[in-house]
Amino acid sequence: MIFIQKQLNHIHNQIHIAAHNVNRNPQNIQLIAVTKNQSINTIKKSIFYGQRNFGENYVQEALKKICWFRTHIPDKISWHFIGSIQSNKIRIIAENFDWCHTISNEKSIYHLNKHRPKKLSQLNTLIQINISGNHNKSGIITIEQMLKLATTIYQCSKLKLRGIMSMSIPKSEFKQQMIQFKKVYTFFKRLQNICPHVDTLSLGMSNDILPAIYSGSNLLRIGTSIFETKSNKHDNT
């Protein structure tokens, strides 16, 4: 069994155990493999072992991979943009990704809608929640801000609001992560009350899988635990 296969199996086992601990169906929890800095060959291996959702942080790096797989791999693959949205990269995001996880302002919404090709399906979008309260960090801070962005997305015919995304504060302990994620969950339920079709809560990376699942996440973003060995781990995806 090669490393990637072993790690994917391990993560899916973690998902099953955590889901059953809180009486959730593990089949309702999806895994995004974060493939920033990973080669096309590495992604091919993960596809061979059943992975179909991939997350990328850097637009130019992602574009090369997306174009290659469109040409060479006929399987249906979903590409998720999970990095910071830069205005000069919005067109590429709109034209090539299936999901955008980091919506935090109206300007990005309007430009993503403007540049989304009509021939493509609606771009799935998540509003990013900043639970740190630090205004220098990406994401919105209040429920009111979230609802305002949700209204704006509803007005854009080429975008589809799917839910929200957030990250725990770096180096948080389990109890702190639970508190942070429960706060995000209140945002999610409030959004669902207004927008019943919203179905996606994206929480959880390699260092906080359990609190994410315990707090209702159904979309995990995992990179380090899939692709990095102990000798070269360097991030918290």
UniProtKB/TrEMBL annotation:
Pfam families membership: Ala_racemase_N
Domain Alanine racemase N-terminal: 21-227
GO molecular function: pyridoxal phosphate binding
Gene3D superfamilies: Alanine racemase
Record has Aminoacyl-tRNA synthetase as a keyword: no
Subunit description: Monomer.
Lineage: Bacteria, Pseudomonadati, Pseudomonadota, Gammaproteobacteria, Enterobacterales
Role summary: Pyridoxal 5'-phosphate (PLP)-binding protein, which is involved in PLP homeostasis.
Stored PROSITE patterns: UPF0001
Coiled coil: none
UniProt modified residues of type N6-(pyridoxal phosphate)lysine: 36
Cofactor(s) needed by this chain: pyridoxal 5'-phosphate
Family statement: Belongs to the pyridoxal phosphate-binding protein YggS/PROSC family.
Protein name: Pyridoxal phosphate homeostasis protein
InterPro entries named in the record: Ala_racemase_N, PLP-binding_barrel, PyrdxlP_homeostasis
Keywords on record: Pyridoxal phosphate
Keyword match Aminoacyl-tRNA synthetase: no
